[in-house]
């Protein structure tokens, strides 16, 4: 493992608790605005639209790359209509979309990342766009060395261009980069391209709807309890 120079991280679910953060945010916001709605159903439905919206970008390359903020904004209006949440203005939809910019970290994230940063380059490698990831880092205190995003590579994970692009932009070989994620499919895509891998379980990411990623399902280089455990194993 001495060849590893950089750690790149999945963010939604691995570094930040998107579900609890959004539900708490929207519940308080709705109460203050006098807007009633099933905010838990909204958040879960919105997340369910995440992968399909990115798949549409892949299927229609002629339309060009569309950043995640724009995909999320496109998804939210029909979803609120379906759930009977009415009376929202364009500014309200913009507020909800920007909720993804202010997600809270898991308890071990900031401390663990700070330790890992002492020995390695650390960066997100996320489908979130650059502004989203930058604002989230400011909100959550995430100590990234830089921000790597699908927006930079014009490809969403698990497209190879994202993983290989991260190594290239860092001036490293894939074998010198380790992908850290709570999602086995993310790690499988990275491993197939030569990246090292570390699995960290986040078994409450989807709340009661969690149905996968309870444990490591591949031959990953590291399987750890949390970021501090990873820092221990990497000598940080």
UniProtKB/TrEMBL annotation:
Coiled coil: none annotated. SUPFAM superfamilies: HAD-like. GO terms for molecular function: (S)-2-haloacid dehalogenase activity. InterPro entries: 2-HAD, HAD-like_sf, HAD-SF_hydro_IA, HAD_sf, S-2-haloacid_dehalogenase. Keywords: Hydrolase. The keyword Ion transport does not apply. The keyword Cytoplasm does not apply. Its EC number is 3.8.1.2. NCBIfam families: HAD-SF-IA-v2 (TIGR01493), HAD_type_II (TIGR01428). This is 2-haloacid dehalogenase. The lineage of its organism: Bacteria, Pseudomonadati, Pseudomonadota, Alphaproteobacteria, Hyphomicrobiales.
